[in-house]
Amino acid sequence: PVVQATSEFLFIATNAWSDEGKAQTRLHVIDLRTPGQPLTVATQLPLAGQVRNRFQISYANGIVTTVSESGGAIIETWDLNHALLGTGPGPPRPLDALLVGANESLFATRFDGTRVYVVTFRRIDPLFCVDLANPADLRLLGELEVPGFSTYLDVFADGERLLSLGVEDSRVAV
């Protein structure tokens, strides 16, 4: 399982295979806001693809954003406000989904406020920047072809710089 935690929720992603042989993830959401109470799964979110590490899960302001792999990188946003934060009835609802890097493998992901950076790879290594400011309307801000492939991304200088580490021609590339 993949685990990501905030002060409010614990997210556990479990990967499985569908009857059709398609990789999929179920994201279990555990509410941590009531100390002293037994931990229970508050809800589960069926994701479109497979989540492989904690850098593919983000939570902010009642919105869960995931980046999973299935025929490319699928960015999904879910509203937890109604179901878990008491602002209305009903289960968590999906807000939007965006596929980037169709038919490519997901290599790296980094969330930075209202943006997510995603690296996929097949023959070239595209780096995608997606705007998360409106979780119900995900927008591709840009795409850059990077030589080799990136396996680690980090954002610094108040979001003005992006560091990409990876491999090009069997050498470490920055």
Key attributes of the depicted protein:
four-stranded antiparallel β-sheet, 15 strands, globular, mainly beta, single chain, 174 residues, 2% helix
Question: What report would you give on this structure?
Answer:
- The protein has 174 residues and is an all-beta fold.
- It contains one helix and 15 strands.
- The protein has one helix at 81-84; strands spanning 2-5, 9-17, 23-31, 41-47, 57-60, 63-69, 73-79, 93-100, 105-112, 115-121, 125-131, 139-146, 149-156, 161-168, 171-173.
- The strands form four sheets. A four-stranded antiparallel β-sheet has the order 1-2-3-4, with no helix packed on it.
- A hairpin with a 2-residue loop joins β5 and β6 (63-69).
- The longest helix has 4 residues, at 81-84.
- 33% of the residues are buried.
